[in-house]
Design goal:
Length: 154
Amino acid sequence: MKPTFLVFALSVALLFAAQPMHAQNAFAPDQVKFGPAPPFLPPGAQLAVLEGDPMGSSGDFTIRLKMPDGYKVAPHTHPNRENVTVLSGTLKVGMGDQFDGAKMMSFAAGSFAYLDPSMHHYAMASGETIIQIHGMSPVKFNYINPSDDPSGKK
């Protein structure tokens, strides 16, 4: 091996070794770490951040939300488009300003939906349900009825 190539190869290796560690950018299912959901969601759900800063003022994000059977989110909107993929369980979604279980559509694992900011909607988990949401930060729930906002309740 020529000495110049060896010096070059060692320099490249040292350069990469000296770089700061970056956030994880690929996850096997057992590497997804769930923690408590933010206070703007009803208690009982768990959240995992896969990418970005969902609470940041801008930028892409990808999160997963794990909900127990019967978990409900009251009618709300979001400031940005919400892209939702159902990974497991069944997500029931209804449109409008009043929660009405009879008017909800069921979305099984593998389903995808996107909801624009103007869409008033509500949701419920049927069985333990995991959804993946991606979009632009910040993640925010604007509840139609302010009394439905769990972050103001103690």
